[in-house]
Amino acid sequence: MRPVACPFCGTTKTRLAVRRSFTDRLFGSVTVYPFRCQLCARRFRAFLGRVARNPRRNFDRVSVDFPVWLKLLHASPHELGEEGIIRDLSIRGCRIRCERSVVPGTRVELEFQHSTASFPITVEEAIVRSSSPGEIGLRFTQLHRQDQRRIRSILDLWLPEPALPR
Q1: d(CA 137, CA 135)
Q2: At 166, is the pLDDT very low, low, confident or very high (cuts 50, 70, 90)?
Q3: Structural domain boundaries of the chain?
Q4: CA angle (93 as vertex; 88, 97 as ends), nearest 5
Q5: Cβ within 8 Å of residue 36, ≥6 positions away
Q6: The CATH number of 62-156 is which of 3.40.50.720, 3.40.50.300, 1.20.1250.20, 2.40.10.220?
Q7: CA torsion 125→19→50→4, rounded to 10°?
Q8: Which long-range contacts (CB under 8 A, 24 or more apart) does 140-147 make?
Q9: Integer angstrom CA distances of residue 138 from 82, 133, 165, 166
Q10: pTM of the shown model
C-alpha cells in the first residue's frame, strides 16, 4: 500500500483524522476513512483498504526549540509580555514552555523566529487550550496567510515522510 496523498496540495504528509460523525463511522465500515493534510489542514476521505483505529488528534506535532514572545491579547499598555520556548508546533497550534501561568480560554498573541536569518512569524490571536505549571498549549485562531505559509514550510521540512504500511 502507498501513502495517502492530499487531493488539494498533493503532499503525502497526511494522517488519519478523528472520526466524529455517523457518516465517518458508516464509511469506516468499508475502510474509507477521513484524513487530514498536515500542511494545508484540509480534511478529505480516502480508501485505506484495512481497518484502522480512531486517532486522538488531527495534526502531528513537530518537536522544535524556537524562542517566542507571548502577550495577553487585551492586556493593559504598560503590561509586558513573556518570553518562552515553543516545544511542539503544528499547523493549528503549539505548546510553549514559559514561567507564566495562563488560564485556559485566554486569548494571546505571539511572535516567534525559527532562525536568526528569518523575519518573525506573528500569530495575531491564539486561544490557550491547556495550561500546566511551566507549559501552555495554544490553538491558533488568527494569523496572516503569509505567516501560515511560513509555518507550513517549516512543517514540510521537519515532518518525516510517511512510512509505507506493512
Answers
A1: 7
A2: very low
A3: 1-58, 62-156
A4: 45
A5: 14, 15, 16, 17, 42, 43, 58, 59
A6: 2.40.10.220
A7: -30
A8: 140/92, 140/93, 140/94, 141/107, 147/121, 147/122, 147/123
A9: 15, 15, 32, 35
A10: 0.82
Task: List the one residue out of 115, 114, 106 whose CA is nearest residue 141.
Answer: 106
For residues 160 and 139, the model is more confident at 139
Cα distance between residue 24 and residue 52, in whole Å: 12
Locate 79 and state its grid cell. 503590561
Q: Hey, is 2 helix, strand or coil?
A: coil
* Mean pLDDT value of segment 118-139: 94
